[in-house]
Amino acid sequence: VFLQLQVHGFSDSVGETNDEMAEPYKIIDSICNGSVKINGSNDNLNSYITSSNSVRRGSGNGGVCLLGLTGLRNLGNTCFMNSAIQCLAHTPEIVDYFLGDYQKEINYENPLGLNGELALAFGDLLRKLWAPGGIPVAPRMFKLKLANFAPQFSGYNQHDSQEFLAFLLDGLHEDLNRVKCKPYLEAKDAEGQPEEEVAEEYWRNHRARNDSIIVDLCQGQYRSMLVCPVCNKVSVTFDPLMYLSLPIPSTTMRTMTVTVLSTDGSTMPAPFTVTVPKYGRFQDLIDALSTKCFLRNHEKLLVAEIYRSKIFRVLDEPSDLLGLIRDEDKLVAYRLPKDSETPSLVLFMHERKEELSDLTNGSDIRKLFLKLLDPFLMPVGDDSDFSDEAGKIDNGDSIVEDVTSSRVSDNDAVSDSSEAGDEPHLSDDFQFYRLDSIRPTEIKMNEPLSISDFAKPLTIHVQWAEKMIEKYDTCLLSSLMEVCKPQLFTRMPPESVSLYKCLEAFLKEEPLGPEDMWYCPRCKKHWQASKKLDLWRSPDILVIHLKRFSFSRYFKSKLDTYVDFPIDDLDLSNYVCCKNSQLSNRYVLYAISNHYGGMGGGHYTAFVDIDYHSAFKQCEYLKTQITSVQLGHKRWFEFDDDRVYPVSEDNIKTSAAYVLFYKRVSDVK
């Protein structure tokens, strides 16, 4: 008979006893003489129905019980927590520490901690997970203590396992910080000193204020280098790292078609099709488009999205995701002069004029407007009269005729190029209204208007007379090409990238965003500096977070890219800058936190490699519990909340891998 017993009302806190529960235990022990099968092994029921704060439980006489295979109950959307806890609870040094006398290092005076409550709750939970023949544990008390430290994890909403892990490690560090009184250490000017000495000083200062088992195992150091784009001032700092958050570079490409327009009236609008990374940034589109349209050195591109024949929004943030642009959207790119200061922009909105009214003539706005319309003038006469003279622009994707204003009749040319005031009949062609006020304001042709006075784009509403619509080919503006026409029955191969490529993308030099301007101490100004990160000191336990989730102002998504990560030999020797360390830079994988599903909902599990012989040979308690059969045991297990299954090593590398846990190993001589 399979019997599962759960005693309600038992306290989860360490060091407490409940006298009221003593009598039920005696009764249970006296009436239960059968055996129960837990995780594939038999064990007497009374061997594990004991006080939760007691670690030394009997192994029973029912055979070998595999330790560390206890699941965690899902309390309601807590799979993210269960996944991360199982990975951390199977970290050998963490297990050894919390199964020992860790209470003596609890810092009850640290205002940044939780008076040791989080450490005690985690230690109690870990002891239950490593109890022989234990049944699945409901981590209610631990979740309650964590919510006191990080209130965002209260309730039963779904969360991110990596975010949870970051808060847990930080909370455990503060509860176990051996530094009772943190000294004040002022950063010194390190300019001109050797980097090794500067890095070591930064590390000593950090350890003088932060000293715990978490720092000992999980923290390393990276070098951050900032370069001023104006004076080339270099600023180097060395900061601690708890984990690596690596971007996943995209290898899947997508084609995007953008219509490029000139703002000086020199060329006709032309569509250009470029290939960019599917999960790239707007800067990737700008770079590809600049090359394809032969952008000159004194020019830049302003990309905008067109919706209902109007500029819906300007795509001016280079770091935004290209996923914001759908295949059915329509994009245009304006060739603008590259000035030192951002020039004022004038946006024209076109409308057919229903009624004519008497207006005065002439203005700079009208001249600018006619200049923009010059490429759209319809040729006079039959197409055969000018087909041989039409220049052609070949951009590799389409051929567009370069029809210029020289093909307009003399009467039209006079009408469109005369000075304001010289031709009274010009009031019959266009009417201009400013839209930067509460109500449209008519622009008087005899009143000067300084465009440079406007810090933001000036939107002009233009009413077209019927006769002017017949003179211009406006269909080019109303029939823009879509970004990409959908292809039916096309199947893309699964995307794959190596973990080393992710690391190289993380270490790549990049400019800071406009919201992260750096203050240059030499220029005394804020600049958009370039930033370069390098690994300087690697930790014993290396946690790698794969950035599968992307967020922006309008869009969020998850990358299901398959990351090919090493299992037995992750070598960081070529990526760690400090060469003076005697420590190895080689790692082996021992745990994975997986996420299945998308942004709207998903599920977390964990893969854990349990190698009893190599992992826990230093743990005194486990030496007394592990038999010779278990010492030779090494295999991977999947922890899916309260269910635990063996899994083949060949099946642990999936596109669901989210957080990877590596431990340092000695160099092979």
From TrEMBL:
Region (Disordered): 401-426
Domain of life of the source: Eukaryota
Name of this chain's protein: Ubiquitin carboxyl-terminal hydrolase
Keywords: Hydrolase, Protease, Thiol protease, Ubl conjugation pathway
Domain USP: 70-665
Residue ranges with Polar residues bias: 403-418
Enzyme's top EC category: hydrolase
Position of the signal peptide: none
Catalytic activity: Thiol-dependent hydrolysis of ester, thioester, amide, peptide and isopeptide bonds formed by the C-terminal Gly of ubiquitin (a 76-residue protein attached to proteins as an intracellular targeting signal)
The protein's Enzyme Commission number: 3.4.19.12
Function comment: Recognizes and hydrolyzes the peptide bond at the C-terminal Gly of ubiquitin. Involved in the processing of poly-ubiquitin precursors as well as that of ubiquitinated proteins.
Species per Swiss-Prot/TrEMBL record: Citrus clementina
A GO biological-process term: proteolysis
SUPFAM superfamilies: Cysteine proteinases (SSF54001)
Gene3D superfamilies the UniProt entry points to: Cysteine proteinases
Family: Belongs to the peptidase C19 family.
Listed GO MF terms: cysteine-type deubiquitinase activity
Family annotation (InterPro entries): Papain-like_cys_pep_sf (IPR038765), Peptidase_C19_UCH (IPR001394), Ub_carboxyl-term_hydrolase (IPR050185), USP (IPR028889), USP_CS (IPR018200)
Pfam families (UniProt xref): UCH
